[in-house]
Amino acid sequence: MMKGQLAGLMKQAQAMQDNMKKAQDQLALVEVEGQSGAGLVKVVMTCKNDVKRITIDPSLLSDDKDMLEDLVAAAVNDAIRKAEATSQEKMSGLTAGLPLPPGFKLPF
User: Fold this and answer.
1) Per-residue pLDDT, 108
2) Residue 52 banded pLDDT, cuts 50, 70, 90
3) What is residue 55's predicted lDDT score, i.e. its pLDDT?
4) Residue 43 dihedral angles phi and psi, to the nearest 5°
5) Which segments does the entry list as coiled coil (predicted)?
6) What DSSP line would sit under the chain, residue for residue?
7) pTM for the whole thing?
8) What percent of the chain has pLDDT over 70?
9) Structural domain harbouring 37
């Protein structure tokens, strides 16, 4: 590999790293909402998995504690899945066109 090609690859890698950092910073601001119990429990979190808000319908407060705990857990899991999908979508655009081996995943 010629010296110029290597320098070009290094420059491209640095630009990609800068773009990934910007995308990660933006994802920290993106909020997703997970739900369970047909929307009776809602969890809002960022794509960096910081929970911002949990909303529980008042009708559930007099119900079974175990059921409420299960609904909260399900809503959190739903929000996590949505955050992961949003993050993957955002980051996959940055690696499109790169000559990465099949199955290679960057740390995001």
Assistant:
1) 47
2) very high
3) 98
4) -125, 125
5) 6-33
6) --HHHHHHHHHHHHHHHHHHHHHHHHHTT-EEEEEETTTTEEEEEETT--EEEEEE-GGGTTS-HHHHHHHHHHHHHHHHHHHHHHHHHHHHHHHTT--PPTT-----
7) 0.75
8) 86
9) 28-66
Residue 61 located in a structural domain: yes
- CB of 34 closer than 8 Å to CB of 77: yes
Angle at 86 between CA 84 and CA 87, to 5 degrees: 65
Please state the domain count of the chain.
Answer: 1
Q: Is residue 19 part of a domain?
A: no
Task: Measure the CA–CA gap between 83 and 102, rounded to whole angstroms.
Answer: 24
Instruction: Write out the two tokens for 18.
Output: 């800068």
Residue 55 CA to residue 44 CA, distance in Å, equals 8
Contacting residues for 71 by C-beta, under 8 A, at least 6 apart: 36, 37, 40, 41, 60
Output the six-digit token pair for 70. Answer: 């299960």
**54 in a domain, yes or no?**
yes
The owner of tokens 């320098």 is 7
